Amino acid sequence: xxxxxCAAHAQTEKAPAAIVxxxxxxxxxxxxxxxxxPDPLVLANGKPVRDAKTWTExxxxxxxxxxxxxxxxxxxxxxAGMIFDMFDRERPRSTARRSASR
Length: 102
Known about the structure:
Strand content: 5-15%
Number of strands: 4
């Protein structure tokens, strides 16, 4: 009986705020619009992927580019004037390796 009471109490928490930091937030899946994921075995130009070579050379890079653009972003290259000074390299007895730079 005690377990049932605790479970019922946990279910009655207040719903999260609809606006967080001035940005509307949706926590209700019923309010989410419909979306169909694109077929992973169709190239961006509409042609089907029929073999491993097409997948490796064309479709996989397209999907990676989509993730870079929409999910992860691209990291900027190293600035031209940036250099590294390795001032402390120590190899302890273990297999770990430690190095320090500025």
